Amino acid sequence: MTAITSRALTLSYQRQVIIDGLDLALPRGKVSVLIGGNGSGKSTLLKSFARLLRPQAGQVILNGADIQKKPTTVVARELAILPQTPSAPEGISVRQLVSLGRYPYQNWMQQWSAEDEQMVEHALAQTGMSALAERPVEALSGGQRQRAWIAMTLAQNTDTVLLDEPTTYLDLAHQMEVLELLRALNRHEGKTIIMVLHDLNLACRYADHMVVVHDRSVLAEGNPADILTEALIKQVFDLDCRIIPDPFFATPLCIPFGREPAR
Q1: Angle, CA of 67, 72 and 73, to the nearest 5°
Q2: Could you tell me how far CA 214 lies from the centroid of its own chain?
Q3: Hey, how many other C-beta atoms are within 10 angstroms of the C-beta on 175?
Q4: For the chain, how many helices (H) and strands (E)?
Q5: How confident is the model over 131-176, as pLDDT tens digits?
Q6: Model confidence over 187-230: pLDDT tens digits?
Q7: d(CA 62, CA 70)
Q8: Which of 194, 184, 170 is nearest to 82 (CA)?
Q9: Distance between CA 26 and CA 33 in Å, rounded?
Q10: Any idea what the Cα angle at residue 175 is, between residues 171 and 178, rounded to 5°?
């Protein structure tokens, strides 16, 4: 079963092709991580999956149908996206921010309901933010702020959640906090998580399915243990390294040593 599929997908900005003729199927109910060099098209690909970027050619299929042909409200009930650097209105509280996730369910005939309230409370509880619900978002730490944004996407109550570099600007402890939360949402709530990560070792630790974006296409995909090699790292990042088993998690551990031979 797949959550999102691309067929002959070509993406571009003006005349510059970023992704060219890509066929890709991301599994439902798993954590998929996109990795690749800067400018490789990871974030561009994620935007197309969220219908934020219209393909130059090809299709993005969400739950069996062309995403471009689905009504906006339908897409918003099936898929949520958290961009790399989201911004909140000044003075907004955590609860108010999380409540914004219920916008796909609001219209002139249906205003705020008991179900909306329940979903907001559930999202706050899932992310450990209930005690901070009345606090202004700008008063939170980096990790708390990111959890608040994730709570907003959870209140949207979609099966699939896209995240563009959710650990950016976070220290290591907060990176782990966010990634552990996302894995728990996958394992216990059945959410399909698709995210872009820069840290290769964290990507290997948390990914069920890894996609290596390179040269306008996908160079490799699959379980990190099956696809991550020293030759691949050299080709994608022009970086010499050693790949060893992580002594605690048994996932691939990349030990880089620069562009000169190790002594």
Answers
A1: 120
A2: 18
A3: 20
A4: 9, 12
A5: 999 999 999 998 999 999 999 999 999 999 999 999 988 899 989 9
A6: 999 999 999 999 999 999 999 999 999 999 999 999 999 999 99
A7: 9
A8: 194
A9: 10
A10: 140
Which residue shows structure tokens 């698709």? 194
Q: Greatest CA span in the chain, whole angstroms? A: 70
Question: What would the DSSP string read from start to end of 165-206?
Answer: STTTT--HHHHHHHHHHHHHHHHHH--EEEEE-S-HHHHHHH
Residue type at 79? L
Residue type, 216: R
Is residue 260 very low, low, confident or very high in pLDDT (cuts 50, 70, 90)?
low
Size (the chain), residues: 263
Question: What predicted TM-score, i.e. pTM, was given to this entire model?
Answer: 0.93
pLDDT at 95 over 70: yes
Helix (H) or strand (E) holding 124: helix 114-126
Type of residue at 104: P
Would you give the end-to-end CA distance of the chain in angstroms? 47
Mean predicted confidence (pLDDT) in 68-90: 92
Neighbours of 37 (CB within 10 A): 17
**Domains of the chain, with CATH numbers?**
2-256 (3.40.50.300)
Euclidean distance between CA atoms 127 and 146, whole angstroms: 10
Q: What is the pLDDT of residue 111?
A: 79
